[in-house]
Amino acid sequence: MKKLLMIIPLVILLCFAFGCQQGEEVAEEAGVVGLTEEDVAAIKALGPALDEAALAGDWDAIVAMFTEDGLLMPPNGLAIKAGSEFKAWIESQNMTIAEASHVFSEIDGYGDIAYVQGTYAETLIIEGVDDPVKDEGKILTILRKQSDGSWLFAIWMSNSDLPLPE
Fold first, then answer.
1. CA angle (107, 34, 22) in 5-degree steps
2. Does residue 11 sit within a domain?
């Protein structure tokens, strides 16, 4: 019985490995290719552009980094649609961003879809709060390549590494 319990996870792992391998073959046969170096460079450049816009309080520039149907999933809150809903939400926070850093540590994808895994760190000056609020955490985002070759965020999800305040 113990051998059987050890073999079952191995069989599942092998099935998963062969399934992933077949997925890559199907993508190649369909003509879907991985990201080019130019794609990766364009996506990496979004991190510093996002930081620059956040520090300038340029919410329009940040909104422009999302697809029309984009979705922002912030920590400890409901999902927010990109565009005017996002801009209204960020303006309602009554804050300025004093420090911002987005590091994209893993970028991958196929065709016109990519994902980014990374980290963020920020310092916020919030109206009515005496001390600056520092936060850092993880991001996971899905991007779509546009017809002009640019990349926009379709989904942005982040969560803090810090415990909730007491």
1. 110
2. no
